[in-house]
Structure formats: structure tokens, C-alpha cells
Amino acid sequence: MALTADQVVRRLRAFEQGKPLPSGETLRVQRLPDEQILILVFVRMGGESAPWGIAYGRPGRKPDILTTPEPRTRDAVAEMVAQLAPTLLTHLNHPKYSHWGPDPDTKLPPFQVWLPNRSHLEMLHHLAYAYTFTKFGERSRHVRLNQLGHACGWLFREAQRPGQTITMAATDVLTEAYTFPAETTRQGHLGFLLAWLQTRGSREARMAAAAAAEEQSIATTIDPTEERDELVPGLETYNTARAAKNMPGMEKAARMIRRVLVEELGRRFDLTERAIAVLHADKRRENRYLDDLMEASLDEHRRQFRRIERQVDDAEDGPAFRPSPETDRHPSAAASRYYVSEASEELRDHLLVHDDRELQAELVAAGEAIAGRIVEVRDEGEGRKTIPVWVVESNGALPLRLREDSALCVVGLPGRELRIRNIERTPDLRYRFELQVTKLLHGPHDNDGSVLPAASPRLKRRTVVLVKPSMHQIGRRRSFLVWKRDVPGAWLTHRVPKVPEVDLPKEIGEDLTAITVRRA
Amino acid sequence: MRPRGTFRRQIDVKVATVTDRLIRHVVDEERLAVVQAPPGSGKTHLLLRAAKEAYRARQRVSVATQTRSQADDICRRFSEAGVPAIRFVAHGDTGAEQPPGIDAIARHQDLPHGPCIAVGTTAKWGLIELADPFDVLFVEEAWQMAWADFMLLGQVAGRFVLIGDPGQIAPVVSIDASRWETAPRAPHRPAPELVLSEHRKSALDLSLPATRRLPACTAGLIRPFYDFPFDAWAEPGERLLVPLRRVAGVRGAVIERLGRSSVVGVTLPTPEGGPPLECDSEVAATAVGIARGILESQPDWVMGQARRRLRPPDIGLCATHHVMNAEMALHLDRRLDGINIDTPERWQGLQRKVMIIVHPLSGVVQPSAFDLETGRLCVMASRHEIALVVVTRNHLPETLDSHMPAAEQAVGRPDVSGRGHHQNTVFWGALVERDQVVEARGPESVG
Amino acid sequence: MPKSTRDDSHRDTRRRFEQWARNPQCQANVISAVHNIPMARVAEQETGRSTMGQSPFAIARGQAFEKSLFRNGGRLLLEALKRSRVLPDEAAGLADFRMRMHGGTCRNLDEALAGTADLLRRLAAKPGRPGRPWLVAGATVRIPGNTMLPEALLVIDALGIRHDESPPTLIVGEIKTYPDRGGYTDRQELATARAQAGVYVHGLDLVLAELDLTDEYRVARQGFLVLTRPGFNRPSIRVGEDLRYQAERAKRGFVLLERAAASMPGPSGTATPDSVIAAPISYSEACVSFCDRADTCRAKALEAGCGSVLGDDVARFLGATTLQRALDLLAGSTPANAAEQDLKRRMQDIEGLRSWR
């Protein structure tokens, strides 16, 4: 995603000051207590997609570490991954593991899963591919692995939903919270970011520390030199001993390999802990609307994870089926999730802005919002009917993407909505907007007097910021409506088409028949 | 040189055939038709005719548009043709004035149960739960409708006619749609693309044969933006600006070249320190200067038998950046009152006799995939009936030549960046090849 | 995927072409690509270390994956290609021009080159010949006519031949070991694979023309990718890969590369790592992902105040203006030209909003 002009200028300012600068007036990530956080870290062998080692645990505590000497052995990896399942599934409140029981309507406390960077998110996707539908191995193990595959798949999908607050890639969180004076490509390295943040001194000192930190891999892959020097000999020894059925030799080599992996995993775990600590030490307050986003995340968790794990259909959110790790082949499922994603973006973008003046400035800079002064207030209503009209003037040099008929709302008072009736340029090249107030004409029910009626002349000369109101409910409604398939055009719009894209091997494809039958 | 008149008659025959086939298809209650149309080829006219005939055949007809203004426009045209229709409006819009014969209804329960034509936006149709579906749904500008939005129209009717221009700006996708890139029904892709991928054989698959709006030369120039062939209804050389006065310099050279072909490029030297990226005052002044120069030559515009004096409202200016449009507006004076300036998104569906556009890649020396998308250029280059002037910094050909577009699309998807690069190269290359590019030294040389 | 013996690997032009295409503005990169001086060697000479090492496990995995695809007459790959409808059900038979060390039959690239040309001629001469191969491993072609470039040899991972079409269609395939994750598959990796496949398409066009076989074959503009499936030991085939414009890009790229080569002093092979070190650089964000000298060049770019040290978007935003100059403008300096005027306005609009709040 290309940087906006605002982000470019902030990066220039960060460069000028030689250090990362806070982005935003408020923090846009919730700082949860340690017991509500699970840190999850992976390493894998170059060229492989399965994990070689896993570290997991709470911040501030020693992590549990799982490794396998030979990650190309499918059974050994499955055995290792199965050991992760209870902790991850308990943390994710899987119905069979949750301390809160299986009832999907139970209100759960917030929780987060932290990973060092996006490559670790990719590993969740790999695990979803490998285990969502596997029938490999002994039954109780593959059932557990299936559950883990579902959990990883849900975490990965949820990570893509705008405004979600559960799957936290530390590099994404830090780059959202701070502006770093460096190329975007390098900002996927957690050590690099933390060195910029935590080194004291000049720009050069921070830059040097960041460059040094960058030399140690924090992705799921291990540095090739280290692989060559440390792990290749260990693995050769291990495999030779295995071929010779030399158990002591195997154990010795396995210990050698584990030592290296533990060190690698530990470093990634420590960095993730440090990232969390940095946020906790940040003096900015959290955006007051984060609770709403967390609520939305928990709602998604309830509908898309706990409900589906319990195989309960939802009249609005669709039948309970295990989504494919790859895509949604059922048209309704694809469209429904697409709409949810759109609605989530709408919610995030139009909620947080009410409590963050930097976000407001960004929107104004992009021409998506108006910052101006009310120069006229009048009431065009007759009798008891009130039709408040405001005239607002703003800086005419800025871009403007709003048009007549656009709906807006007042920052800080989102319920008060307005419609642009007319846009003009004044002779001194300012924008002049005529707006009709359409909602919350008198103020909220619990008005303590701080909110003036929209037609009050006392509003004149006040500065206002007007942003688009959130239409997320519309997206949500569409996500429900699109499941309705007893419609006359369903033969075209809702049928699973006969095109090559439908062909997915059964080990990664969702059960399309089950979806259709359940809907029927 | 094709025989004058014969070719046009052939086009008229083809249009009549397409119209007849579509009307027959709709009246016979066939299920699916898709019509691809080049810009200004009469697709709305076709939709109106087919909808009217379906209504005459006592069908309940619904029309979905992508914007409110499109819905209003269709209702206005029904009204002008004396066809009664319903404008299915948003709650709160019932008070808006409607043309004669058009009723505004907001509640779906209030829609008539008998034969009628109801026109609303895709958004409006998609958010209701219709108890009494229509017989047929026409979708206007269907290539601007994402598949997910089309799915919600499945409840409106059981039969569909999708009409649109595939070269225009695609639906805006603001979220990460990676998950659905390989889905058989990717919710973010234009609906007709997906419909045709499976139903091309069973659907009535039509295309309008010619653009009526664009001059012959332009049709050839924008054809690479499309995957289907089309011609121009206008004969070469029959649409002209006939200046009464001579103007000198670059403006004169532009007008002289417009006498040879409908499209002219104007380049300005790229400054030593690099071109301004967003707001290029010189390019803005040049674009306005060309408009002024054209008007100062007091030209008549000629389209077939029609001949009138060109006035400022006959001219449009367009740049992709808002600030650039604002900058052009600053250069307008009272003599240019009436010239409309806007972004390509806002120009969609509109036309002018003369368009002067700032090339989307002017000032862009490191084009991104977004910069190379040609939807906006296609819109900008297809709004004129007589003449198009494309203004740019002269780095453009070199930028295109040295740029190596990366094919970063998802698996199995078309190489949009590569295609955009190719189309841009072909578009500008054709102007150079036809000697239709005028080099200006600076805005002062344009006046 | 290693193609051949150590010496032969340097003859495969594809990598050098892609290295050049990733940053054609950088003169040092051009010299390195044209004269076949690996940047790793340059970086080692310059700083004592190189940064772009490959995982030994990944290399081994690539070799093993490819071997598994072509084992037993290419059974696994042929079956996968038939399932994906790249080849018809009747398809059978593998022509193998891979090096012996990778499980093939050729001793060196020259043998592969001659074998490929011979196969194309023979198939054209007797189209209906029984036992004709539908799949070719390691087909090797030379791009003719590049006098300035040391050699333009291309080794095509997998080449499908549709004998059931008239004329027979050659379909280019690229084998990669990274995981196929549908729409999430790494886009940059995909771009590299397609760029390589585009080069093959262009190379095949030229070779068929040179062999006077243009009318005997059609080179498909859609290719296929052979990827791995996470968690499974089976290939994943992606069909319908759009190579039209990547082939065009390759064609134009070779012309530009040739032009760049022609402008260089000295015949091919005369440049040394010192020539690369002495050449002007043009640092961009992309360098981080492919060039061993990225750190060195970034330091130089920083010294010169290039916006690219803050990323491509910043460089694009600043145009030719240096970082320091941009900051001066922000601090109130008077713009010296239109570009600076525009830049200052854009920055001030943003900053103005921040101070407004």
C-alpha cells in the first residue's frame, strides 16, 4: 500500500529529528494485561513450510518451547504441533477448551495473540493448510490438529480484517503507532524497529543500531549462514544416526539442533515482549473507541470461530462450515465475508477519527473531511418543524473529494449527521458549504446541556470537523442478506459455478455440499 | 478510404440487429443477456428501448444503476419518451422533484404489482427484501458493479440484462481482497466478467458495434483499451473544428493538427529539477491556454450536418488530481466561463465537443501499478465528440520506455500493470507516429 | 533452482536479466549484469561480506522437488498438468535436457542447447511421430544476435507441448518451491517467476525464428507455475498465467540492455568488480531484496540526500529534490523551481493541518 502524502511528510519529520515519532494523538491498539496475551513464535527450515520450532507463552514469563530435530518428517512435526494445541485453543476459548464453557453467547474477556512479524502470520496460514482437514495419523491427534488448523485459519483470516484487535503482528502494531525514518521494506523487521525506538542518541547512533539489529533474522526463517554452520552438521549427524538406529547419537544431535532453535526462538520471543513493553510505556492514551473495535472482534470470534467449532448455524451469518484455508468457493460465503471486511474498514475508519485529531487532519488532507468554521446558522423549518442549516467555510487550497449530497457527521458528536446541499468557492478561494442537519437536531436524550441544538445561533463562529458517518451497519446487513438464496435470480447469483477455480483438492477445500444442504 | 455512407449504414444495420435481438430476447423471457459497449455507443438508449418493449409486453421491469444521477438520468429520458416509470428512491428523497410521468417511491411495499418500470440504484435494490420480484432486471454500467453487489440483486428478478462499458474505471476495492483472488466468484471483480466466464455460451452475448460519440481517429486510438472490436459511426474527417481566425504558435499548431486528426498531444519540457508531481502550474496553464487559443480562433464545430460556434460550455478540462483541477480553475477567466473541470471519475457518463486533458502520467517518472491503470485514461480520452488535446511533460515516452512493469497480480489473474503499460505506450506512440504531438516550450508559448 | 554445473550456472542469462530489470537505472547494476560480475563478489571485495546468501536447505529442497517432478519420465508432473488441463489426457513422454547432476541426461549446456533445437526440428518434421514427448525438462535456448552481451542462454524449467493443437503449442512453465497460498502467494515472488517465464516466451519466439520454425509452433502467451502446497508433498499447478506483457517486457528489456551494454567501454568480460564499484549507483527500496551492495549504496544515497533512503514512496513524492532541501523548504526556504514550489505546497498543506489541530 502506497504511503499517503501525510505519511510521507511524517517520515520526513522523523528523519529530520533522527528518531521515530508517535503517529496519532491516541494509541490505536489496546494494551491488555499479560494474562490476556499469548505470544507465539515460529522458526522453520529454509524451503519448508512446516515449523521446526515453536515458542509460546505470556509476556514476562519463560516461554514453552517445542522443537523437532527433523522438520521434513511429517509425523514428527504433527506431534510437535499437537502439543501447542491445548494452550492455543484454551487462549482462543475454543468451546472444548475454554474456561468459560462452550456457550457461544457467553461474554468473553478480550484477548490477543502476538507474533513478531507477518512471516509468523504466514506460518499460521501454513498450519491452517496442513491441518484444517487432515486425517493423517491417529484419530485423537488428528482431531486435535484439525482444531488447531481451524484456530490458525481463523486467526489468519481475522488478521486480514480491518480494525481487528486480536491477531497482533508486532511490526504492524509498531509501524502504526510510530513513524520510522526508514524504507517500508525494512520495517518488517522487529529488531530493526525496536533498535530505532530504544537506542538513545543521535540519528546516526539509532541508524547504526537498527542496521546491526537487522542482521539477525526475526522472520520464521533462520539466517542461511547459521543454517549452514550450525544446523546442517547437526542434521546430518542426526540423520546418519537415525539411519543407523543409533539412539544416543540421535539424541545428542537433536540436543545440538534444539540448542540452536531455542536460541533463535528465544530471541524472537524477547523482541515481541519488548514490543509489547514499548506500547505499555507509551504515554499516549488509548483511543476511546477501541472498546468498540474489540467488541467487534469478539463478535467475529463468537460468530466465525466458537459458533463454527460448535457447528451451530446462524440465521444471519451463515451455516457452520470449516472455511478452506485458501478461499471461499461458495459465492454467498465469499460475498458475506467480503462485506464484513468492508463494514469493518468502515467502522475502523469512521470511529477512531472521532477521538484522534491527527486522524482528522489526515482525512482533511485527503479531501475526505472538512475542517472549518460555521459562519451562518439558520432554521428553514416552519411551525414546530426544525430544518437547521449551517454554512461552513474551509481552506480552499486543500483537495476535496466530497460532493453535493454527501453525508457527514460532526466529530465528537457522530450522531449529528448533515447532508451537503451546495459547495461554492468564495472570491478569496475558500470552500463554502451549505449543509442541512439531518439527524440529532436537538441533541442526545441524555444531553447535559453541553450539546447545543443544531439550529442554535450560538454555534456560529465555532470550528467544526465534519467526517463521513460510518455506514458499517449497511455492510453488515449486506453480509447477512447475501446468504438468502431462495430468490428468483439464484440460478445465476447464488449457485456454485462450474468453472475451473472450483477445483480444489479435498485436503484444502471446504465442503460445498454441506454449505448448500445446511442452507436448504 | 471506405465508401462514405455505406459503412455507416452497415453500422446502423448492426445496431438494429443488436437492438432487435435484445428486445426479442427480453420479450421472449430469456434469462440472461450481456451487452458490451464502447463509450458513447448508445448503450443507455438500448437499455431504454429494451426496457420499454418489455414493459409493453406487460412485464414488470426493474433497472439498477450505479449512481443516483444515472437513475435520475434514465428516468428523465423515460419521461421525455413518454414512458411512465417509477424512481425507486432512498427514504428521505421522496420529496425531490421528478420529471412528468415519473413517480418517486421509497418503500418496496409500495411498488406496483402489475407491469411497470422501476429505476433505482444497485445499493437501494440490494438492501431490501422484495416480496414480489420483478420479471427482469436491467443493470446499467454493469462493469462498475462488483459481483457481491450483483448477488444482492438476485432477489430483484430471475432474468438479467447487463449492459456496460468494460473500459471504464473498475469498482473501487479499498480492502485487501487477497482471500478471494482465486475464488470462483470473486466478490470484488466486475460482475459481467464473472457472468461471461461461465455463461458466455448460454447467454445472449452482444456488443454494440460503434461509438457514436467519438470521432473516427479516436476510436482507433482507444480500441486497444478493449477486448472486443468496434468502429466509429463518424466518418473520418467529418467532425471538425473550423476556425475563423488564425492563431499563432503552439495553439495554431494544435488547431492545425486537429484539422487532420481528432487527437493532439502537447508536450512541455521536463524541468531540470524534475517535473512537479501533483500540481504542475505550467501544465495547468498550458491546458487552459489551449482552451483559450481554441476559443480565440472562433471555431465552428461541425458534426455531419450540424454546425455551430464553439462556446466555453462545449469544452471540458480534466486531470486526475484534484489540486491540478483546482489549479486549472485558477487560470480561467470570464471569457472561459462555462468550461467544466473535473476528475475522470466525475466525467464518466458526460461528454463535450472538445476535451483538454492532463495525461495521468505527466509528472510521474516512477509509475506505480496504480498509475499505469488505464481506466482513467480511457474515460478521459472518450468524452469528446470532436477534439481531444492531451497535455503532458515530455518525459512520458522515455518513462514508458524505461519502465519495467512487474506482474505482481495474484495467481491466475491478468497482468493489469503490463497491460496498462502496453496500452499507454500504444496510445502515445500512435500520436507520435501520426505526427500529432506538438512541442511547447512553456505555458507562455501557449498564451 | 540450480541448472547445471558451477561454470554453467553463470551462463544462464535469465538471472542476470532479472537482476538488471529490477533496477535498470543503476549503472553499477547494469555493469554487473552485462559483464556477469556477481554483486556478491563485488560486495565481498568492498566490505568483506555478502548478504544475499541462500539457505542450503532451500537449495536442497528445490533440487529434490524438481527431481521428484521429473522422476519416472516426469510422471508426477505430467499427471498434475493433465489434471490442470494444461495437457490433454493422452499426453505422455518426457524429453529431458537437464544436467546429469540434477538427474537429467546432458553433460553440459551446449548439449542441452543442441538437443532442444534438434527436438524442435524433429517434431516439426514429423508431427505425428509416435512417442513424441509432451513435456520437456530443461529445454535450453539461446537468444541470438546479442553481440554485446556475453551470452544469452535460457534454461526453461518445464515446457509443455500440445501436439493436439495445430500448430503444436509450446507452453512455458516455471517451477518454484515456495508455497501456493492462493491469493496470498507472495506477489514479488510471483512477479519474478512471471518475468522469467516471459523471458522464456521471448527466447522461444526468437529461437523458432532462427530455426525457421515460426510457422510450425505457436508459443502460448499463457504459462503455468508449479508451486508447492503447504503441508503436502504434491505440486500445485497454477494455469493461465498471463505472460503477454512479460514477454513484451523481455523483448524491450533485451533491447535496452543491449543499448546499455553498447554504451559501456571495453568488450564484454573486461570489467572487474572495481568497475562495478566505480560506477554510479541509483539506490531504490527494491535493492534491499536482491542486491548484496544495498547497505553500501544506501549509505551513499544517504550522503547524497536521496529520498529513496526513506523508501520509494518518499522518493516519488520528492522527485529530484533532496531530503535536506525538502526539509529546508518545510522550514521556509523559497522554492527555486516549479517542482520545489509544488513540493512545498504539498508539504505545507499537510503541516498546516497538523498545526491547525
Uncertain runs of chain C with pLDDT below 50, 5 residues or more? 1-6
What radius of gyration of chain C results from the CA coordinates? 24 Å
Helix content of chain C: 40-55%
Large-scale geometry of chain C: elongated
Please report which band the strand proportion of chain A falls in: under 5%, 5-15%, 15-25%, 25-35%, 35-45% or over 45%. Answer: 5-15%
- Which sequence of SSEs, written as H and E, runs from N to C of chain A? HEEEEHEHHEHEHHHHHHHEEEEEEHHH
For the biggest sheet of chain C, the summary is:
7 strands, mixed
This entry's quaternary arrangement is heterotrimer
Number of helices of chain C: 14
Helix count of chain A equals 15
What is the spatial order of strands in the main beta sheet of chain A? Answer: 8-9-12-11-10-13
Helix/strand order of chain C, N-terminal first: HHHHHEHEEEHEEEHHHHHHH
Number of strands of chain A: 13
Q: What do the pLDDT scores of chain C average to?
A: 88
How many strands, which pairing sense, and closed or not: the largest β-sheet of chain A? 6 strands, antiparallel, barrel
Provide the residue-averaged pLDDT of chain A: 93
The Cα radius of gyration of chain A reads 27 Å
Helicity level of chain A, as a percent range?
A: 40-55%
Strand tally of chain C: 7
Strand content of chain C: 5-15%
Helix/strand structural class of chain C: alpha/beta
Characteristics of this structure?
B: 447 residues; alpha/beta; Rossmann fold; 2 domains; 8-stranded parallel β-sheet; 6-stranded parallel β-sheet; 16 helices; 21% strand; C: 357 residues; 14 helices
Structural commentary:
The complex is a heterotrimer of chains A (520), B (447) and C (357). In chain A, a hairpin with a 6-residue loop joins strand 2 (37-44) and strand 3. In chain A, helix 2 packs across helix 4 and helix 6 (190-198) packs across helix 9 (247-281). The longest helix of chain A is centred in the middle third of the chain and has 35 residues, at 247-281. With 520 residues, chain A is of the alpha+beta class. Chain A is globular, with a radius of gyration of 27 Å. Chain A has 15 helices and 13 strands. Among the domains of chain A are: 30-281, no CATH class; 369-444 and 451-467, Beta Barrel (Thrombin, subunit H), CATH 2.40.10. In chain A, the strands form three sheets. A six-stranded antiparallel barrel of chain A has the order 8-9-12-11-10-13. By secondary structure, chain B is α/β, with parallel strands linked by helices. Chain B folds into two domains: 6-209, P-loop containing nucleotide triphosphate hydrolases (Rossmann fold), CATH 3.40.50; 216-446, Rossmann fold. An eight-stranded parallel beta sheet of chain B has the order 4-3-5-2-6-7-1-8, sandwiched between helices. A six-stranded parallel beta sheet of chain B has the order 16-15-17-18-12-19. In chain B, strands 11-13-14 form a three-stranded antiparallel beta sheet, with no helix packed on it. In chain B, strand 15 (315-318), helix 10 (322-331) and strand 16 form a beta-alpha-beta unit. The longest helix of chain B has 22 residues, at 6-27. The model of chain B has no long low-confidence stretch (mean pLDDT 93). With 357 residues, chain C is of the alpha/beta class. In chain C, strands 1, 2, 3, 4, 5, 6 and 7 form a seven-stranded mixed beta sheet that branches. In chain C, helix 6 links the parallel strand 1 and strand 2. In chain C, helix 7 crosses helix 8 (244-262). Mean pLDDT of chain C is 88; it is low at 1-6. Classes of the chains: A alpha+beta (520), B alpha/beta (447), C alpha/beta (357). At the A-B interface, helix 11, helix 13 and helix 14 of A face helix 5, strand 7, helix 6 and helix 10 of B.
